[in-house]
Amino acid sequence: ASGRTTMGGADWMSSALPFGLTVVVLGVVQGESQVVVSVVVCFLAAAVVRQWYNRYVVFRKWPSPRWTLPLLGNALELAPAMLRYLMREAKRQEGEGLFVFWPGGSAPMVCASNGRAAKQVLGNTAAFPKGKDYEKVFGFVFGDGLVTSTGPTHARARRLLGRFFVRKTLEEKAEAMRRDVDTCLDRFLVAEDTAVDVQDVFHLTTLQIFGLSMLGVDFFRFGTRECPVLGGAGAGEREKKDDDNEIGEKEKENDDEEESLRQKRKVLFEIVRGGATADPNKVVSSSSSLREKGDYFLETGECLESLSREVCYGSSVIGLHMIYPVPMTPLLPHVRKLGDTMKKTHVFLQGVVDSRRSKIRAGGAPDDCLTALVKAADDGDDSGLPKLTDTQISHQLVTLFSAGHDTTAFMCCYAAFLLAKRPDLQEDLRRELCGGGGGKGGGKNFDFPTSLLKRVFQETLRLYPTIPAVTRVAAKDVDLPRFGERDTHNPEDDDAKNSAKTKETLRVPRGTRVMVPFFLLNRQPGVWGKDADDFNPDRWIAINGPTPSEGLMHPKLGFLPFAYGARTCIGYNLSLVEGKIIFQQLLDSYHILPVPDFKPRIKAGVSLTVENPHGIKVRFKKRRP
């Protein structure tokens, strides 16, 4: 297939599509049904031919599924459980680590599920940039934020925000985080010795901690009467005095300010009570019912819960559209709901930005991500780019509070689920984190690189990577290694055969979409051994070596839980510091117990989510003094 370009997105079919649609519309308007049918049939036939050409000419040397349906491809098998399908397909290919499949439509997707190929795809952003799907799908929610931006725009964002995610900076906030985690666990972990869906506990906790430590925003109290940004005791309740039909200058200013706050609360109220995932018991659908609320104050914790639900919903929608060739069109009800919520969210965030801007001018703003973004918008920065706009700030904020808590929350969820089955590891981990006899200050001799906690996080992220997969697009023809690091050294093969395997490659044609499936890379028996599906943190003792580093990643094995290269997750250190604090506080106060016969039903969104109402369930039992 050398020199051939996959007949994918930007080819003659895509160029002809507008013309075809125009003909169809004119045919419908003029009642020429035969013309419409003819054009549709021609396009369908051309798409089937394109699919056949890709499979049997362009990708003829590639391992591929036994069968693919015309246009549907392998979508019928993928739809119920994409992860299980790809794992079955990889097993059928005998661990080669490179194969193609058809998620729908006529263009295939390459699955790069060996470590050497994954490292090359993620490490070479020039050859494998993010494709238009990121711009269209992720951009629908995140705009030009960290996840979607490229080039100088992305570099500026990392430069502005990166210093807040350095481990040393985060450790300085550890004591404040510890107090906040204690408060959150007391609020959200109320049931004892009953099955608890820890998604709720950890998502609410990590979102609240992220808001407080990185944005200076208390989501738990946001929009309530006690909210320092939008509320204040008695806000909106002051009576106007018009004895002489005159209102004092100061009183008028206060009234204007209160009305402005009320309008901002109204926007937030509409998001929380009328968003894509609004509580049906509290949903507001009419302007009259909104008017009845008067000051639009939320209940305590309502904003936090709403944001957490919206992030999970957005993750599911984005994950669906990243895999299947379905456009993000408002004609689809779930896309329309998400779009409406995002519009209101940006209006609400503008109020948050304005409030921080006032604090900066008054000289009382904290040094955090939000302040850095607002200052870059008002004063500029040294990037040479135009000043940030408030819209760009809003995009960054959506990216930060979505990605900033979601991955940490799921890591903690799956770690708790796995530790529940290993009470021996729980006790070892408690002694390590809490200093022998307990105590929330943590172990005095704790050393993360050699710690059990590091190995528990590594093994958790190996079995349940919080980001299940990422996609890229080949910018040119590229040869990828067919076998991974350990796959090429089978002791039953002679040296010549192993050497041949090492050199064997398959060509990825320009324009091809490539998936790097972390969930599949991490469960290859040829790499991880026959116990690849077992939870065994001790396997990392040998892998990490005698002088382990602070990092979790092992690119040669394809273990890349926070991506790789220039696009490594900026919140990598935050996730580890926050996870450490959460388990310090949790294990010092609770035993984590399994729920008999429970297994999570995994599905892939932006994060490795689970199907509700199944959730990720464990039991918590209070430790006795």
Give structural attributes.
disordered N terminus, 625 residues, three-stranded antiparallel β-sheet, single chain, alpha+beta
What order do the strands of the largest sheet run in, or round the barrel if closed?
A: 1-2-7-4
Helical percentage = 40-55%
Q: How far apart are the first and last residues' alpha carbons, in Å?
A: 69 Å
Assembly classification: single chain
Strand content: 5-15%
Q: What does this molecule look like?
A:
- It is built from 23 helices and eleven strands.
- It has helices at residues 12-29, 33-58, 75-78, 82-92, 115-123, 132-142, 151-161, 167-172, 174-188, 198-215, 249-274, 287-291, 302-323, 333-362, 369-379, 390-419, 423-434, 452-463, 495-503, 518-521, 525-528, 539-544, 572-589; strands at residues 98-101, 109-112, 195-197, 469-473, 478-481, 505-508, 513-517, 590-594, 602-604, 608-610, 617-622.
- Strands 1-2-7-4 form a four-stranded mixed sheet. It has a three-stranded antiparallel sheet with strand order 3-11-8. It has a two-stranded antiparallel ribbon with strand order 5-6.
- Strand 1 (98-101) and strand 2 form a beta hairpin.
- Helix 6 packs antiparallel against helix 13 (302-323), helix 14 (333-362) packs across helix 16 (390-419) and helix 15 (369-379) packs antiparallel against helix 16.
- The longest helix has 30 residues, at 333-362.
- The radius of gyration is 27 Å and the shape is globular.
Task: Compose a concise summary of this entry.
The protein contains 23 helices and 11 strands.
Secondary structure elements and their pairing?
Blueprint: H1 12-29, H2 33-58, H3 75-78, H4 82-92, E1 98-101, E2 109-112, H5 115-123, H6 132-142, H7 151-161, H8 167-172, H9 174-188, E3 195-197, H10 198-215, H11 249-274, H12 287-291, H13 302-323, H14 333-362, H15 369-379, H16 390-419, H17 423-434, H18 452-463, E4 469-473, E5 478-481, H19 495-503, E6 505-508, E7 513-517, H20 518-521, H21 525-528, H22 539-544, H23 572-589, E8 590-594, E9 602-604, E10 608-610, E11 617-622
Parallel strand pairs: 2-7
Antiparallel strand pairs: 1-2, 3-11, 4-7, 5-6, 8-11, 9-10
